[in-house]
Input
Amino acid sequence: MFKRNLFFFVLFLVLANIIFGAYQLSQRRTTSFSGEYYSSLSHFGQVLRIIHEKYVDEDAVDYDTLINAALEGMLSSLDPHSQYLSSEKFTALQEETQQQYGGIGIQIENRDGRVTVVSPIANTPGEAAGILPGDQIVRVDGENTEGYTSDRMVELLRGAPGASVRLTLYRPKTEELLEMTIVREIIALESVRDVALLDDGIGYIRVTQFGERTGTEFAGAVERLENDGMRGLIIDLRNNPGGLLSASVDVAGVFFDRGEMVVYTQGRDRESRREIRSRTPAREREYPIVVLINSGSASASEIVAGALRDTRRAVIVGETSFGKGSVQSVEPLRNGDALRYTSARYYTPAGVTIHEKGVAPDILVDLPIEEEARLLQQRSRPDLSPEEFEERFGFAPIEDKQLTAAIDVLKGIFLYADLGRLSGM
Output
């Protein structure tokens, strides 16, 4: 009996020591963190109180205004993609995810202190007006926009369909200052367009952005082309500003085995690595693929191009892509606002980072700025005959040299395969 009681007493002492040690360790960590946290919070509170009580314009320093400005500044100081979203901005973000809003149809971001166009969205007033990737928005309705955030610019550009907005753009490539008035429309973000079977059995699919339905639409377009006898495929991702990560995985996954890694993300800790794998049922697709990209191809479109390049499933033709390879997380807050912050970076299957580097093409085909502008206008008005187009825009439709190069690549692969079969007979 004595030995049994002694055993339980010793066991109790051991467990008590373990629990006490764990408590002490957690207290040290918590105290260290809490001390730094509360010291910073106290410093912020002191500044907040001084400005609220002593700033000359009393109407400008209510607590809500000051705190919102501080939060916006905190997030925007991190990188161009991190934001503090008021409830109104959060609602606008959700509306955009649903792929419909009133505006002119351009993707923008802060770059070198200016709000810069990443890409015009296909079939929108912005594309039809000739806005190009890299254009800087200098004024909106006469208002100087220097130092404006992307959020503030979105507020100015969006509005009721039918209302016009006057823009002043600076185009760094040509050092031009451009004035244009654009009428807002409902921007319905269609994603898979211009599906066609070209000569020699070459399929063509243009993906303009990555939304909730893009994966399904793309898979359906591929299957239709296959049923029509497609021998090779061109995926046009030029001026595609990106979108949902899941949609890019679904598009690339059409050509991947189920469970094969398409992309992975890496946050600040080693343990945060997340491998995103294809969910598509395996199907043998052995025809050659060419992916077209340019400087307006960003984010999700770079994931698709990088995944197909790294796994030797496609030849990349065009120009180096934009280089937007960061992951943004959105966390709603109790008051209806939200935080949008960069939580990780994308890496292609070969471990290559996209961020600020982009995807380099296998075959470089640069387009002069004038040709790119004309091609954007051509693609925005497929309903016009060549004669009607020239009459309206003052120039005849021109050859798309990047598309021609992609077609030539596939024809070369066809010829090589045909010669191989003949030599084996």
